[in-house]
Amino acid sequence: MVASVNAAQGFDPSKPAMTELKDGVYQYSQFFYNSLVVITDEGVIVTDPSGEARSKMMRKEISKLTDQPVKKVIYSHDHFDHSRGGQIFKDEGAEFITQEKCTELLSRDLEARVVQPDITYKDHYSVKLGGKQVDLHYYGPNDGDCMSIIHMPTDQVLMGVDWHLPGYVNEPYRLTAHNYVAIINTFERVLNELEFDTVLSGHMPASSPEAFREDYRFNKALFDAVWKGMQEGKTTEELKEAVRLPEFSHWRGYKENLPAHVERMSYSIWHGN
Ligand SMILES: [Zn+2]
């Protein structure tokens, strides 16, 4: 996603990185994808395999920390780049969990590389294992229609996949399912309802409660600017030229990608999705 910048800094995205965030709670990073990994005396919980090569390496890294099997796999959402590659965990008996609206979408993988879910939920589901708890909340449409908000209430850990990309104005081609109006609602519900002191992004190397709030401000500032322009009768094309968010000009991709976000926000307001 930002390979050239990181290569210049000597960062190798293919190298697996397991970072301990809390007791037994880890972020596994590889190929610009992050998984939450929770290790307990009764088994392991992971999110998003994100491809066969990555899940195999993740399995190896988990084995360095525990002999316990992976018992639960959580799909944050339906997109195949996150959900493919879970067979290695299925083979050791893991149970696959996701929001119910993902089921039909996950079944559409023409290459059949997505392990189909065993458990689905509607509004809320708690994954409990070995004294750890990972809650899944469905707050409505987001990036796609079946995004789970991942939260550990006791460990105060929050994970936002695809809707939380701190410090990064994402590439235009990744915005096709990005429901900006809904994502602002998600941010507001999370900020009002969930307690957390540790944050993971699905893709960015690191986040924090401060970075999460800054990301919310970016979303809100974009909404406010586009909304105001629409009220003044400006077209989407005019807004793409005119809207500037100087508070975020230091964000990666700001200059090249902001117009596409203005456009997506405009259609999101226009269509409601
Ligand atoms: Zn993603």
Automatic annotation (TrEMBL):
MF annotations from Gene Ontology: hydrolase activity
Keywords, comma-separated and alphabetical: Hydrolase
Keyword set includes Hydrolase: yes
InterPro entries in the record: Metallo-B-lactamas (IPR001279), RibonucZ/Hydroxyglut_hydro (IPR036866)
Coiled coil: none
Transmembrane intervals: none
Record's protein name: MBL fold metallo-hydrolase
Record domain Metallo-beta-lactamase: where: 32-203
